[in-house]
Amino acid sequence: MLRSHFRIATRNLWKHKGFSIINIAGLTLGIACSLLIFLWVQDERSVDAFHANSTQIYSVYKRLYHEGSIDGGYQTPGLLAEELKRTMPEIEKASGLGWASTKAFASGDKIQREEGRAAGADFFEIFSYPLLEGSAREALNAPENIAISRKMATAFFGSPEKAMHQTIRYDNRTDFTVSAVFEDLPANASQRFDFLLNWEAMKKENSWLLDWGNNGPETIIMLRPGASAALLEQKIVSFLRTYNRENPGYHAELGLQRYDERYLHSRFENGKISGGRITYVKLFSLVAVFILLIACINFMNLTTARSANRLKEIGVRKAMGAVRGQLVRQFIGEAVLIAFLAGILALLLVILVLPAFNQLTSKAIVLPLRQPLFWISLAGLTLFTGVIAGSYPALFLSSFNPVKVLKGQLQQKGSSLWLRKGLVTFQFTLSIILIISTILVSRQIHFIQAAKLGYDRENLVYIPVEGDLAAQKTVFKQEALQLPGVMAVSQMLGSPTDLSLQTNGVEWEGRDPNVKSYFNHSTVGYDFVKTMHLQLTAGRDFSRDFATDSVSYVLNETAAKKIGFKEPVGQQLSFWGKKGQIIGVVKDFHFQSLHKQIEPLILRLDHSRVSGIFGTFQAGSFLVRIQPGKTRQALSALEKLHQQLNPRYPFSYQFSDLEYDRLYKSEQVIGRLSVIFAVLAIFISCLGLLGLSVFTAEQKTKEISIRKVLGASSLSLFRVLSADFMSLVGIAFLIAVPLAWYAMHQWLQQFAYKTSISWWTFALSGLLAVMIALGTVSIQAIRTININLIKSLRGE
Fold first, then answer.
1. Do 405 and 512 reside in the same domain of the chain?
2. What is d(CA 186, CA 48) in angstroms, rounded to the nearest whole number?
3. Is residue 591 in some structural domain?
4. Cα(254)–Cα(248) distance, rounded to whole angstroms?
5. Residue 174 to residue 2: CA distance in whole angstroms
6. CA distance 530 to 527
7. Residue finishing a domain among 389, 411, 433
8. Which Pfam families match (predicted)?
9. What integer best gives the mean pLDDT of the chain?
10. For the packed helices 665-699 and 278-305, what is the interaxial angle rounded to 10 degrees?
11. Residue 256 three-state SS
């Protein structure tokens, strides 16, 4: 019996090649899209989940109540990790973790830049990063120690074994001893680094970390076995009150989050974790399910649309005693066979497009072909698809009355017709939602790229201050200003796109003692306002003409409002105990992601030391404003100047606009994926619409022939064939609009600065849906209108 069903199914597939190709193509695309999305989702969920003690590792986050608002983030005091470990018996290990930065290293004649951080002595005992050389306990237990990756060890010393106990020079000033070599980080590690420096050395060279009122580093802890994270969180919620003077207008709380959940849940709202990349994971999981459903619906509609071709087969089999259950099993078996063919083709398609998909998403996804679970899951997905796709056609075809079937009369039930129309409406509802979502995601990305940041990010170049350049900053600036194409030069700590260091060590006359305010801060060089093209609303820029500028301050508008001076210029301000004068106020500019509101910012003149292990961070970068159209000429001249002043270090630079774009890499990837999957979903939906139009045309063939004999025009016949479908698209549009509006409104809430949801977005989406539907229906409508009248009417 099974062999007979297989032979019949194969014969039917071969007999109706065009129908079979459309069915298999639809299911292939549906399964391939779903498989790609599920691989991406699985990769996203695997990030940071490989650590052996993942259930015990937690990030500490800070919730700050001040001035009527609640902020949340992972920036914590630099002393927090060791103090928590000392006072909380539930904590077995703890480590501070510094910010990522790119540093220059040298060994012999080899010089290159590497990205890394500073971490506590417990770091390698908390995380399961494999050590190729050295021990976890001793890797970072001394200020002179450095742990490096296999890649870095091989580049400088030839192998991890040869790297051990070797000396490597940092920024041409400080020598470190390689105390450990760790395996290159896996692709699913969220935080990247090729070297780690000792935490105590970092505190020694950054004295501001010793103040409980300053925030910047992260704090990671590992609980003892059996310790309760919930109970510990209750104990530490008010931990900082012991170390910070609080008042009714200000207080800070601590919270805990599983480290392996942080990558997907890193967005804060009112001081609480409320989402993050998990939104995209859930969204695309739904898209995968929807695309698979759309493909299954296509199969249903195409199969039932072609049901007339199998009337005699069904009638004969029923007349010979076949019961409905046998027919149901046969038709579901045919659907499963088609689904498995589609599954094989989908797997081949995924193998072909996976490299491009990885490049698009910046992933390193590998098909787990050697894992039995993968094959079981793929077989289960394919079987499920076949059963779902074949269930309705099986029930529909097996319900025919054998007497009427043998007379060639297809049974038409209003319920079955409405079900098919409902399925097509559902398809187009999902497609229109995807169209609207894609347009709005693209608009938000364009809004971000075209946003006025308050400074000019075009033709602005960052050059790291490192090596010999740190001691020749003044010379470099003077010489650079004489080069062709260079308009202005300044300097700053960090970059204009990420000024996240905070402090509450700011005092001023008239400050409310019940209000403790936090300010973002950075050090800059002379002519900073001029170089950045910032707009002064009062006062002036830092200038060498004023010796007192070494203890002067420039505020943004938000900081000036927070302080409350009506005329801030000339007023006294104390920063970390250093009293100075406010000399200028600049118009607010974005120095962080557009996800965040502009925060109060205080700029100080750079007078930091250039020695010590974090000298390059202290010295920061040169900001060079280049004349439009002379970028190549200016960069060539800057490279020659750099070689003269800093010959041991290769010249490097970064364009400000490219760095800004990297802030929104996730949104750009999501935007491109949305376009691709929306187009595929629409294409698959069109196959479903084509199936229903074929079915309808078969039912109205004689009606169309009679209308043509009576003189009906082609346009009127087209309206007859397309009217029902346009009404289905209209209904789908009415359902899709409120659903899409709600979904995109929720998504846009993660941006403090966002595009508006305009009416024309919905109008354009509806117009596109109508044009796509008309184009699809017209394919079959034209064929039906041009049928041979004699052949059509001969059956009557």
1. no
2. 9
3. yes
4. 17
5. 77
6. 5
7. 411
8. FtsX, MacB_PCD
9. 82
10. 10
11. strand
Query: How far is residue 223 from each of residues 86, 92, 256, 398, 496, measured CA to CA in Å?
Result: 13, 5, 11, 62, 37
Tell me, yes or no, whether 499 and 636 share the same domain.
Answer: yes
DSSP-assigned beta bridge partners for residue 601: 520
Question: Which of the pair, 779 or 80, is modelled with greater confidence?
Answer: 80
- Other C-beta atoms closer than 10 Å to the C-beta of 409 total 12
Confidence of residue 23 (pLDDT cuts 50, 70, 90): confident
Which band of pLDDT confidence, cut at 50, 70 and 90, is reported for residue 549? confident
Quick check: 592 pLDDT over 90?
no
CA distances from 299 to 313, 375, 392, 424, 652 (A): 20, 24, 10, 11, 56
pLDDT digits (tens, 9 = 90+) for 212-236: 888 889 999 999 999 999 999 999 9
Q: Looking at the predicted structure, is the pLDDT value of residue 597 above 60?
A: yes
The length of the chain in residues reads 796
Helix extents (H) in 47-126: 80-87, 123-126
Q: How far apart are CA 52 and CA 93, in angstroms?
A: 14
**Residue 267 backbone dihedrals phi, psi, to 5 degrees:** -95, 135
Per-residue tokens: 758: 């305009």
> What is the value of pTM for the model shown?
0.77
Q: Are residues 231 and 94 in the same domain?
A: yes
Average pLDDT over residues 558-584: 90
Pairing of strands 506-507, 250-258: unpaired
Specify the number of domains making up the chain: 3
Cβ pair 419, 304 in contact under 8 A: no
Q: CA–CA separation, 400 vs 207, rounded Å?
A: 85
Higher-pLDDT residue of 197, 369? 197
Q: Tell me the per-residue pLDDT of 166-206, one tens digit each, with 9 for 90 and over.
A: 999 987 778 999 999 999 999 889 999 999 999 988 888 78
Q: Is 58 exposed, middle or buried (0-12, 13-18, 19+ CB in 10 A)?
A: buried
Pairwise CA distance, residues 740 & 553, whole Å: 47
What sign does the CA torsion over 111, 116, 119, 123 have? negative
The tokens for 424 are 């097509």
C-alpha pair distances (Å), 372 with each of 257, 367, 368, 376: 33, 12, 9, 6
